[in-house]
Design a protein that fits this description.
minor pseudopilin epsh fold; five-stranded antiparallel beta sheet; about 35% helix; about 30% strand; elongated
Length: about 190
């Protein structure tokens, strides 16, 4: 009697197990899948991070190029009878400024309120991206690119051509190889990414 009851309960258990939805994964199979996924992630992670940082560098180059183009357009349009330019600072910040037309802009007078005024907001480069001109050629804590009314880029709003050390803005990142260069034409003032 006990044998029949045990056999009956065992067959009921087998039937319930089969009817609950099929077979499950074993622990070995799950561990193998996790190992394969971790191998794929560890192989692709360095290239994905390099791609991300390269895109950050590209984005900064596009933003600076856009800022330079906007300042040039404002100068050509003689908005408020001012000349416009972009100031680049060593701490990776830059902004557009408006300057009184016909006044020679220098390191001493560029921030005086009777000569200049801030136009737009201060922008900061993305983390890890820096303007390499400060490491190579520019010794001051800032440099200016000012566009005259005819669109020609100058360093002081009067004289041209633009000095060689700032006619090409070089962006680098400590996290990605390579660099982006923004070249500013000395004759037309048009900027483009190289």
């Amino acid at each position: 009697m006990i044998e029949k009851l045990c056999v009956k309960n065992f067959t009921l258990f087998k039937k319930r197990r089969r009817s609950s939805g099929g077979e499950a994964f074993t622990l070995i199979e799950i561990i193998c899948v996790i190992m394969i996924l971790s191998a794929v992630v560890s192989i692709s992670y360095p290239s994905m991070t390099a791609y991300y940082h390269r895109q950050q560098l590209s984005s900064c180059a596009l933003e600076i190029n856009s800022e330079l183009s906007a300042a040039r357009s404002l100068s050509i349009g003689r908005v408020d009878n001012m000349t416009y330019g972009v100031i680049f600072e060593r701490n990776s910040e830059y902004r557009t400024m408006a300057f009184k037309s016909g006044v020679k802009i220098t390191g001493e007078n560029y921030s005086k309120s009777e000569i200049s005024k801030i136009y737009g907001e201060k922008r900061t480069l993305k983390p890890g991206v820096k303007i390499n001109n400060f490491d190579r050629e520019v010794k001051e804590d800032f440099f200016l690119i000012i566009f005259r009314g005819d669109g020609v880029a100058t360093a002081d709003a009067v004289n041209f051509p633009l000095p060689d050390n700032i006619s090409r803005i070089v962006l680098t990142s400590g996290n990605a190889p390579g660099e982006f260069k923004i070249a500013i034409s000395k004759t037309t003032g048009i900027s483009m990414i190289e």
